[in-house]
């Protein structure tokens, strides 16, 4: 992708985004709902036309050769694009027809997919009766029935339980090991740890692009202090007023506070909160998570925007 932009009237959904995805890697595209992830995918597979910029998928131009792209990639949308009234096997047969799978290889492909998705013995189940996890696996099977070299997964684990999420990622790993290139969008930061490369997008702008390890090592300014305490929101508001606190946010059942030097300010944070009558259970220096990095980048972008507007 080079300088890819999509506008809907006066609204810019994707703003001048550029990146490469290497063959065989798992590329994670992260961002909150409405950040532009799905719009990027829909441009890459030719479902919508970019306002400006360019891109190629498997060597095919996203504007001029979109039909060739759609026949050679797999796409699993946010909502499982299955026909609920059809059986498992009928859904596979339908998508095999859409992707022009030759009849002489279809039987073998269905056998491989049913085994991969652990759906053997469920071929005659009506799709609407399947659990979320089974539907998820079936939707993936339909997306790869034609053995694509590139697979687009748009928030594929939304709405399924943690066990189903883990099982689904096991399937993604297996496909990647076979050489399939995978672009997966998610807003689950723990899933991003499984990706080779991560792109952070926020309100259509690409904030960062690197490996999970490099993002955590290079994109954070300062140290993270993890705090477990009572009156979480009162503590958060108090910490945000302190000059040496770069940023603070709720993290799980506690707080993550960004400071320039954890060794120097750890004691000051505890004394500050306890002085306000807040019971502090623990305060310690921890390594940043991808969620910390993303929050920091978003806040930094907001600060830069405010600074520019003031100027």
TrEMBL record:
* Keywords linked to the UniProt accession: ATP-binding, Nucleotide-binding
What's the name of the protein?
ABC transporter ATP-binding protein
Q: Which ranges carry the ABC transporter domain?
A: 1-228
**SMART domains reported in the protein's UniProt record:** AAA (SM00382)
* Record carries keyword ATP-binding: yes
Annotated GO molecular function terms are: ATP binding; ATP hydrolysis activity
Looking at the record's lineage, which domain of life comes first?
Bacteria
Q: Which organism is it from?
A: Biomaibacter acetigenes
Q: Which InterPro entries match?
A: AAA+_ATPase, ABC_transporter-like_ATP-bd, ABC_transporter-like_CS, P-loop_NTPase
A matching Pfam family: ABC_tran
């Amino acid at each position: 992708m080079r300088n890819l932009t999509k506008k809907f009237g006066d609204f810019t959904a994707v703003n001048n985004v550029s990146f490469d995805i290497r063959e065989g890697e798992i590329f994670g595209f992260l961002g909150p709902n409405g950040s532009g992830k799905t719009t990027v995918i829909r441009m890459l597979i030719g479902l919508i036309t970019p306002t400006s910029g360019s891109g190629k998928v498997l060597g095919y131009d996203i504007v001029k050769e979109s039909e060739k792209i759609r026949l050679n990639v797999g796409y699993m949308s946010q909502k499982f694009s299955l026909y609920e009234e059809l059986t498992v096997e009928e859904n596979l047969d339908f998508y095999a027809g859409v992707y022009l799978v030759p009849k002489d290889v279809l039987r073998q492909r269905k056998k491989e997919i049913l085994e991969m998705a652990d759906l053997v013995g469920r071929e005659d189940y009506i799709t609407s009766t399947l659990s979320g996890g089974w539907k998820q696996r079936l939707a993936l099977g339909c997306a790869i029935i034609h053995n694509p070299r590139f697979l687009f997964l748009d928030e594929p684990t939304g709405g399924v339980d943690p066990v189903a999420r883990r099982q689904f990622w096991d399937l993604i790993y297996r496909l990647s090991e076979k050489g399939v290139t995978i672009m997966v969008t998610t807003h689950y930061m723990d899933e991003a740890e499984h990706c080779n490369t991560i792109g952070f997008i926020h309100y259509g702008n690409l904030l960062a692009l690197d490996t999970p390890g490099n993002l955590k090592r290079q994109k954070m300014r300062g140290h993270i202090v993890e705090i477990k305490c009572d009156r979480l929101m009162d503590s958060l508001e108090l910490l945000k007023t302190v000059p040496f606190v770069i940023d603070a946010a709720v993290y799980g059942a506690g707080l993550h506070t960004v400071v320039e030097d954890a060794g120097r300010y750890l004691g000051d944070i505890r004394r500050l909160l306890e002085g306000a009558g807040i019971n502090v259970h623990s305060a310690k220096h921890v390594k940043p998570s991808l969620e910390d990095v993303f929050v920091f980048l978003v806040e930094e972008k907001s600060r830069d925007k405010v600074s520019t507007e003031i100027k």
